[in-house]
Amino acid sequence: MITTRLAHKTTMEKQSFIVLAIFLLLSTTASAQLSQNFYKNICPNVESLVRSAVQKKFQQTFVTAPATLRLFFHDCFVRGCDASVLIASPSNNAEKDHPDDISLAGDGFDTVIKAKAAVDSDPRCKNRVSCADILALATREVVALAGGPFYPVELGRRDGRISTIASVQNKLPHPEFNLDQLNAMFNPHGLTQTDMIALSGAHTIGFSHCGKFSKRIYRFSPTNRIDPTLNLQYAMSLRQMCPVNVDPRIAINMDPTTPRTFDNAYFKNLQQGKGLFTSDQILFTDQRSRPTVNFFASNNAAFQQAFVTAITKLGRVGVLTGFQGEIRRDCTRAN
């Protein structure tokens, strides 16, 4: 009887161990399946192929850099980093058709398409590298080409098949957000306040349209026509570039000092009240985030290191791996 009970107990322990092992296996996040050498035996020269294509595009227009970087951010924040933002819809019902995405520059999309063509030109690689991974690699390349850090990119993402306008609703930060709203947007993706501030530093090579910030320089409130947190001289220069009734689609550099260099000037500008968006300037005016802004403003290396950490974490958000999703033959539509 004792022997039988011991055998039963041992069997139960084995079963419990198996259940626990299965649970742990299922609990392993998809991001853990990403690796820097994912294409080593599939498409060993994928990085050089993407690099060459992006360099050619970058030489044609600098807009390639901020456009591609912004495209990556918008993609990852909506359905995860699955290249769903690249999908086009004949009925204008895809992510890219949402008002929050409609201003994404075409050069970002073109960069990925050209890089995809370059990768597929190698018979070993044709239709074996995801558009999501190509976008991630292209983003690293434009950051480095603009003077930012060259960092290792984790690969192994697969492409999503779904892209809808509805998916974008309330998924992207807005120019008027305060610190609490920004953190509430980033935290669910595993991104800390420091990560959020570092990623905001990408605005050092970004651009925006007059319509996105015109309220700050013309009709901030009944008592203040100009946002009091905005440097007055800077506000006047913005008025010259964006006069009343001007086309709201006119593009303005977000970094008025070194708009073509990926550096920490963005944070130095915030210290002087030269953040273009409320969501930029709030990082300095709010006492909780100001120390990080001051640190990045005083130490470019620290900013770039924090940016690499943050964009690596961003690249893991909601990824599809293994047998999930697909490898799109055409980045603009599902197979």
UniProtKB/TrEMBL annotation:
The UniProt annotation places heme b binding at: 203
Cofactors required? heme b; Ca(2+)
Q: Cofactor note, please?
A: Binds 1 heme b (iron(II)-protoporphyrin IX) group per subunit. Binds 2 calcium ions per subunit.
- Signal sequence span is 1-32
The alphabetized list of GO BP terms reads: hydrogen peroxide catabolic process; response to oxidative stress
* EC number in record: 1.11.1.7
Please state where this protein is localized.
Secreted
Q: List the disulfide bonds.
A: 43-125, 76-81, 131-331, 210-242
**Entry keywords, A to Z:** Calcium, Disulfide bond, Heme, Hydrogen peroxide, Iron, Metal-binding, Oxidoreductase, Peroxidase, Secreted, Signal
Catalytic EC class: oxidoreductase
Q: Where does substrate bind?
A: 173
Positions bound to Ca(2+) 1: 75, 78, 80, 82, 84, 95
Q: Which GO terms describe its cellular component?
A: extracellular region
Q: Domain of life, per the record?
A: Eukaryota
Active-site feature positions: 74
Q: Which Pfam families match?
A: peroxidase
The record's GO molecular-function terms, alphabetically, read: heme binding; lactoperoxidase activity; metal ion binding
What region holds the Plant heme peroxidase family profile domain? Answer: 33-335
| Catalytic reaction(s) noted | 2 a phenolic donor + H2O2 = 2 a phenolic radical donor + 2 H2O
What positions does the entry give for Ca(2+) 2 binding?
204, 255, 258, 263
**InterPro entries documented for this protein:** Haem_peroxidase (IPR002016), Haem_peroxidase_sf (IPR010255), Peroxidase_pln (IPR000823), Peroxidases_AS (IPR019794), Peroxidases_heam-ligand_BS (IPR019793), Secretory_peroxidase (IPR033905)
List the residue(s) that the UniProt entry marks as the site Transition state stabilizer.
70
Function, in words: Removal of H(2)O(2), oxidation of toxic reductants, biosynthesis and degradation of lignin, suberization, auxin catabolism, response to environmental stresses such as wounding, pathogen attack and oxidative stress. These functions might be dependent on each isozyme/isoform in each plant tissue.
Regarding protein family, the annotation reads: Belongs to the peroxidase family. Classical plant (class III) peroxidase subfamily. Belongs to the peroxidase family. Ascorbate peroxidase subfamily.
Q: What is this protein called?
A: Peroxidase
Annotated organism of origin: Turnera subulata
